[in-house]
Amino acid sequence: MAQELLRESYEILGDDFDKAGETATEIKQLLTDLALDASLVHRAIIIAFEAEMNVVMYASKATLTLVLTEDEIALRIEDSGPGIEDIELALTEGYSTATDEMRKKGFGFGMGLPNIKKNADEFDIVTAMGKGTSVSAKIGLNSDG
Ligand SMILES: Nc1ncnc2c1ncn2[C@@H]1O[C@H](COP(=O)(O)OP(=O)(O)OP(=O)(O)O)[C@@H](O)[C@H]1O
Ligand SMILES: [Mg+2]
Q: If DSSP codes are grouped into helix, strand and coil, which group holds residue 27?
């Protein structure tokens, strides 16, 4: 297995719009300081931000774990929440159950999960109704040429 260079965990709270985006900002700082390729960092931040926002909008709380190895940036977001009834539908561009209030804040375009998938080299989502959802996204460090 590739050697683990760094591991960080972040707690995200549901409905906490005041702090929304803070975790993604911290991860941006961390990865930028490591002098990783900017386009890889950019992809990781999109994934972190969209996953963080989905916790804020739909779940109670989550732990985001960032692991950097010699080979990849791995992000895992495990939430306690309602779960997702139809994953295929949730992954469809434009599908959203966001409330009017969320849409007024500029969210709810149904683009978060599709963007996470698009920006990941490996993507996995596991959900249990009434329990929660776990999203895993990996970016290969040599994947942008
Ligand atoms: N962690 C989650 N727990 C429960 N449901 C979720 C979760 N993440 C996404 N969903 C469901 O999947 C739908 C699609 O999510 P997606 O992130 O693609 O779009 P969105 O959050 O509605 O809008 P946007 O991300 O563009 O602001 C959501 O509207 C919601 O119904
Ligand atoms: Mg979203």
A: helix
Indicate whether 145 pLDDT > 80: no
Residue 130 Cα to ligand 1 midpoint, Å, equals 16
Partners of 62 in the β-ladder: 12, 79
> Does domain 4-140 sit in CATH 3.20.20.450?
no
Considering only CA atoms, which residue is closest to atom 12 of ligand 1? 90
Measuring CA to CA, how many Å separate 122 from each of 47, 72, 106, 137?
12, 10, 28, 6
Contact (Cβ atoms closer than 8 angstroms) between residue 127 and residue 133: yes
Please tell me the distance between residue 65's alpha carbon and the centre of ligand 2 in angstroms. Answer: 18
pLDDT at res. 14: 98
For the segment 27-54, the average pLDDT, to the nearest whole number, is 96
* Measured distance CA(37)–CA(2) in Å, rounded: 19
Question: Considering only CA atoms, which of 142, 132, 138, 118 is closest in space to residue 61?
Answer: 132
Q: For residue 109, give both structure tokens.
A: 């375009």
Residue 138 CA to residue 127 CA, distance in Å, equals: 18
pLDDT (mean) for 33-54: 96
